[in-house]
Amino acid sequence: MHVMVTGAAGMIGRKLAERLGQEGALAGAAITVLTLSDIVAPPVPAGFAGAVSRVTADLAAAGVAERLISARPEVVFHGAGVVSAEAEMDLEKGYHANLDGTRMLLEAVREVGGGYRPKVVFTSSCAVFGAPFPDVIPDDFHLTPLTSYGTQKAMCELMLADYSRRGFLDGVGLRLPAVCVRPGPPNKAASGFFSAIIREPLAGRDTVLPVSEDVLHTHASPRATVGFLIHAAGLSRDVLGPRINITMPGVCCTVGEQIEALRRVAGDAAVARIRRAPDPLVERIVAGWPHRFDAARARALGFVAESSFDEIVRIHVEDDLGGRLPA
Amino acid sequence: MHVMVTGAAGMIGRKLAERLGQEGALAGAAITVLTLSDIVAPPVPAGFAGAVSRVTADLAAAGVAERLISARPEVVFHGAGVVSAEAEMDLEKGYHANLDGTRMLLEAVREVGGGYRPKVVFTSSCAVFGAPFPDVIPDDFHLTPLTSYGTQKAMCELMLADYSRRGFLDGVGLRLPAVCVRPGPPNKAASGFFSAIIREPLAGRDTVLPVSEDVLHTHASPRATVGFLIHAAGLSRDVLGPRINITMPGVCCTVGEQIEALRRVAGDAAVARIRRAPDPLVERIVAGWPHRFDAARARALGFVAESSFDEIVRIHVEDDLGGRLPA
């Protein structure tokens, strides 16, 4: 089986490629070729026995998607695109990378024709939703995104469903919750603190909490997120039905509950590294985000998130810190 | 005030241009220039005192939207596009006309900049919804279109909302119910019978009913539809808020109730011209369409539909038959 990953240099793309490489199989079939594509060179996953093809190119540039798809991958994990803040700062870049890139990919698949009908697993986001929200967002809640990023993801979801309905491909779009704990250096994203308040203390560094402890949010670990993508690749068209874009489950908890989970895993000293410094701008942005999802359909389809935030903290320690807690 | 209408040669576009020409004003301001654009030459509305500019061109072709927008119309009624059946038969044409055409228009507005921020009234459709449905579709129900046409309209709604949020324009999208009674010759659309069972008997011609009389559907007359568009042009950004795409109200009734309305307006002889000829294909297509909308938000915003199907029949007689009933 030939499996392709777009956005393979991103955090989730890298972890997905590593896991595919380690498992060597997907949906019951051995992976013989792994094509990894991104605008910067993606790393080669360790320990994969099959062939790895790396393509460093802009998916939205003319001819790139055609070239990638001409090798007829059976499964395409499509995660390429620019992130929320970038799409908001640079409108043209966001529509180019996120909308045109996806459209180029879907068009390239359609143009192959001749019975070629790959599984396309699309990385969408809970940013497709926009406030005001009910307490729990049901699976049939409308999409009124409040960012250009969310708009582009929602537009791609629609096109993916249409191309699936018309039989050009078997698409499935996953609306991911906040991915936490995000490894790597702190970033400027308004959501950065959700990960930083866990990651930085666990790395022995101080960090700042800009919002109140009663802020509620839904999280899934990078490991669970990669699990969602892999599970989606194994879902048949019959099981999915026509509503192929699905809100993923996660652990819904307050910032205060996140901090108590950190305390249980790493002790008071870790928690003492969190300094309260309320930031009205961040508080205002976060207030516009969805808190809690029903995700009944995803759970019924077998998507599994963590069952507690403690588990999310422990997964970060295992997967990103080699199992080591701070001294 | 300079008002532009795209799709001005279509049935609704023509009626809208006629009404704008007759009223000579929109949202309290006198109309000095009326630009009418379509891919075929739009008719000149009778009795308009201002200047009429007609542009026969494909809005989605390079440079056309820029040329139209360079004259800086204060209000743009954007109805250009291909209809449902055509978008389904020709995928490329549908995405070109319906998605790219709208994107070209929005981009042309954005590129003018310098404080230019027109009102853009977009003609969307209840085809953005897809079965299965609750008995009454609430205003916050998700969009899962089952046609490429509905997909393209939903994608345009999202982009219109994003461009409005970013301050490039003041958009409002109207999800129109079935427009009934549609004048002109019978067409091949699966929905054609909803109008034909009224229009043909009133014109002294026989017609065929392909579905059961208990089929439920929501209708608005062409006059009410034009009224929705004109009312939308007068709604301020503050009143609309960020959720600018709105499901319009209509008269929800069964086919049997339509026929009884025809009987009350035109007598038994008219009803006798309807022959039952069940068509399983049409029955199946119609079963996938939404029946009834809450449209609470539209009603609260002052959009007014007819209050009975009798009124819809009488409006057809007045507006399209010169007030004459069959002998």
Automatic annotation (TrEMBL), chains A, B:
Domain called NAD-dependent epimerase/dehydratase: residue spans: 3-208
Keyword Cell membrane: no
Domain of life assignment: Bacteria
Keywords: Carbohydrate metabolism, NADP
Gene3D superfamilies hit by this protein: NAD(P)-binding Rossmann-like Domain, UDP-galactose 4-epimerase, domain 1
This protein's name: NAD-dependent epimerase
Annotated signal peptide: none
Gene Ontology MF term list: oxidoreductase activity
Keyword NADP recorded: yes
